[in-house]
Amino acid sequence: MTPFLNEEGMRWALRVFAEAPPGVERHLVLRNRQRVYGLLHAHHDEFRALGVSLFDYWVPSPSGSGYETFHAKVVLADAEFAYLGSANFIRYLCSSVEMGVLLEGLPVLAVAETVAAAKEISEKFSV
Asked: Residue ranges of the PLD phosphodiesterase domain (predicted)?
């Protein structure tokens, strides 16, 4: 789950998806897919081969003035492990000072529930 994505971040995410064992669901939740549609389309074959489901979290604000979004960056491995932090999936991911935590056990359930809720109100799409 990331609001920002570029080519370097995409390659990193695809490596993470590729290293997941068979049978593991692979989901990528983005914000405003139109901003990165060309990048997503360029990696269409990789998404399909890995079975990655894409979600666009870009919903109208309840007030009607703009949209609701997220700023969280999450890598949810399963119901046991998760990363939650500030590192965007962009070029500077490996060279900027970011902050994050690796969570294990019970706190991961809250992260998993939040990601599930975001996916529930997101638009699933394909490229």
From this structure: 66-89
